[in-house]
Amino acid sequence: MSGNLLKNTLLPPRVKLQGQVLAEPSAGSKFQPRLPRHIPLAIVVPLLVIALIAVCALAPGWIAPFAPTDMDDNAILSAPSFHHLFGTDAFGRDIFSLVIFGAQRSLEIAVFSMVFSSIVGTSIGLVSGFSGGWIDMALMRLIDIWMSVPPMLLALIIAAALGGSFDAIIAAIGSMTLPPFARVIRSQVIAVKARPFVAASQALGASPLRVMLQHVLPHILSQFLVLATLGLGQAILVGATLSFIGLGVIDDRPDWGYLLSQGRDYISDAWWYATFPGLAITALAVSVNLLGDTLKSRFDPHHQKR
How confident is the model at residue 276 (pLDDT cuts 50, 70, 90)? Predict the structure, then answer.
């Protein structure tokens, strides 16, 4: 009897909560977040598509069977075949090779515009939410004025005014996705700023810049990742739209939007001309948006409560 009493005294008791018996805690154990047993298809499939297109953009010369400038006068507007998987265009160029090389330009425009808008928008939201007062009011009124202009109209105006340079297109597309970054990041910073550890770091004499970068910024990275992913999908579509209407980057490199614009004149006679560039745009945009929605559902606490 004394042995059983000693055993019951030394062993940690089971915790009973709402009729369920939890596992006995082990000595020296620490809290570990629960990891998913498997990665859902809503993440795997988009990542595979994005990775495939990224490989095409990084090494198009190793994948494409022809150079984007190779022309075949005997194969003008040829239908898809074993020699030309996606057919040829009005100049006898291989459309499969054009789509592969066009991935580089399309991804460059989308990624650089997203980097521009995320850095500027996050900086505005971070300073506005942390500073408060007249700085917050002035920056948010500026963002309100910015958002009063239709985003696509603003991109068209900037692209037409600055010309068809790469920097102009980055500024045009980045101007569309910048305000959401500033607004959402600001709201997240205000919520994090109210936590006790921020007040403790300020009481210890940490500078505002150090508090923002070391204590506030790491707690809003999840929302930043979601915004960047969703904004990337929008940047892909806007970049293709600007190229489609003739306001894209003007150079000799193929672009998905420009290929789609060229193929629309032959849609009744050569359906493959515009179909495959359009499918490439759709596949990349849908994959990025699906990945962004999945990340949002996992990082958003309100969605998890529902």
Answer: very high
Structure tokens belonging to residue 108 = 């460059």
- Residue 187 CB neighbour total at 10 angstroms: 15
Residue 242: half-sphere exposure toward Cβ, Cα within 13 Å: 35
For residue 204, the tally of other CB atoms under 10 A from its CB is 8
User: What are the CB-based long-range contacts (under 8 Å, 24+) for 259-267?
Assistant: 259/89, 259/95, 259/98, 259/99, 259/102, 262/89, 262/90, 263/89, 266/77, 266/90
Q: Which residues have C-beta within 8 Å of that of residue 157, sequence separation ≥ 6?
A: none
What's the sign of the alpha-carbon dihedral 55, 59, 64, 65? Answer: negative
Write down the H helix ranges in the chain.
2-10, 41-58, 60-63, 95-131, 133-148, 151-162, 166-193, 196-203, 208-211, 221-244, 256-263, 271-299, 301-305
CA distance 89 to 127: 51
Instruction: Tell me the per-residue pLDDT of 222-237, one tens digit each, with 9 for 90 and over.
Output: 888 888 888 888 899 9
| Residue 158 tokens, joined | 């900037």
The secondary structure of 258-294 as a DSSP string is HHHHHHGGGTTT-HHHHHHHHHHHHHHHHHHHHHHHH
Question: Which pair of structure tokens corresponds to residue 34?
Answer: 């629960």
Q: What is the pLDDT of residues 58-83, one digit of tens each?
A: 988 899 899 888 888 888 888 898 98
The predicted-structure confidence for 21-48, as pLDDT tens digits, reads as follows 444 444 444 434 444 556 677 788 888 9
CA contacts within 13 A on the Cβ side of 83: 8
**Which DSSP state fits 300?**
-
CB of 183 within 8 A of CB of 125?
yes
The span from the CA of 69 to the CA of 137, in Å, is 53
